[in-house]
Amino acid sequence: MDISFDLLINAIVAGLLLGGFYAAVTAGISISFGMLDIVNIAHPGFVILGSYLAYYININLGIDPILVSILMLPVFYALGCLIYQVYHLSFEKRGQDALRGLAFFFGLLFVTEVSLILVFGVDYRYVEASYIGPSLHIGFVDLPLRMLVPCIAALVLFGAIELFITRTFIGRAIMAVSQDQLALQLQAADPVKIKRIAFGLSIAVAAVAGALLIVIQPVEPSVGREYIGRVFAICVLGGLGSMPGTLIAAILLGIVESLTATFYGPSWAPAVAFGFLLLTLAFRPAGLLGR
Fold first, then answer.
1. How is the chain split into domains, by residue range?
2. pLDDT digits (tens, 9 = 90+) for 156-195
3. Of 58, 164, 167, 247, whose Cβ has the fewest other Cβ atoms within 10 Å?
4. Please, which residues bridge with residue 142 across strands?
């Protein structure tokens, strides 16, 4: 079989697996930015915090990092609720949730990164698990388990979020809160409480994304900066507030990056990916599944 065809298929498969991970990292932003209009640029910082907690417990107790992230969901949810309450009282309630709110989240990102540096240093950290290293070989297609397992976990996570958003009263209230708060209040729902729940959910999701990240690659405190532009780009490309759109956009971006890195070099991947984003938005300003 032609070598270039082998490379093409493997690059597409790698892009699908990478896109699944990107979807997990972007899920929280799709909730906070896409549904709540809260520009949480500190989200990647919470992803890295999730990575380090998974690392610390994995190294000291030997618990699987993905299982650690699931156990930490209530802690991250409570942290998200607390952060939103501070944000609401300090900025949103006063109508200052634009530039000052953005500075608030930038400060959170900086504090999180510096705190991790003070505790863990700047060395790269990694976890240990039975699926890190081996690969599945299906014909000429290679499936690294360190990418396949996070991708499957990300798809399960996305499915759970989509079911919660579309099948529960709170989930539908989250979708409605940024569109018509008066109508929401007429349904006996408190918009502030709904936003607090949604923001808590977005930060809880970051814990899982962080565990998936450290399974895929070693991390250090500043790695989160690499994902700030990417997660917002995927959120906008998919269509603000659309979880299925976010998943599709993440997979498309993963495939574009993988193909570019395979045939033209890794340094071209981000530029081509963002070029693809701009081209798509030129023809579809609302995003792939935007309203």
1. 3-283
2. 999 999 999 989 888 888 888 877 666 676 666 788 899 9
3. 167
4. 137
For the entire predicted model, the pTM comes to 0.90
pLDDT above 90 covers a percentage of the chain that reads 48
Q: Residues of 162-178 as b/e, b for ≥16 C-beta within 10 angstroms?
A: beebeeeeebbbbbbbb
> Residue 226 carries which DSSP code?
G
Instruction: Classify residue 139 as exposed, middle or buried by CB count within 10 Å of its CB (0-12, 13-18, 19+).
Output: exposed
Q: Which two tokens stand for residue 215?
A: 């399974």
Per-residue pLDDT tens for 58-71? Answer: 999 999 999 999 99
One-letter amino acid for residue 130 of the chain: S
Q: So what's the pLDDT on residue 239?
A: 83
Phi/psi for 220 (5° steps) reads -135, 165
The alpha helices in the chain, defined as continuous H runs, are: 3-32, 43-61, 65-71, 73-87, 99-120, 145-167, 169-177, 181-186, 191-216, 228-238, 243-263, 269-283
**Is 208 within 8 Å of 74 (Cβ atoms)?**
no
From the number of C-beta atoms within 10 Å of its C-beta (0-12, 13-18, 19+), residue 157 rates as buried
pLDDT value of position 218: 93
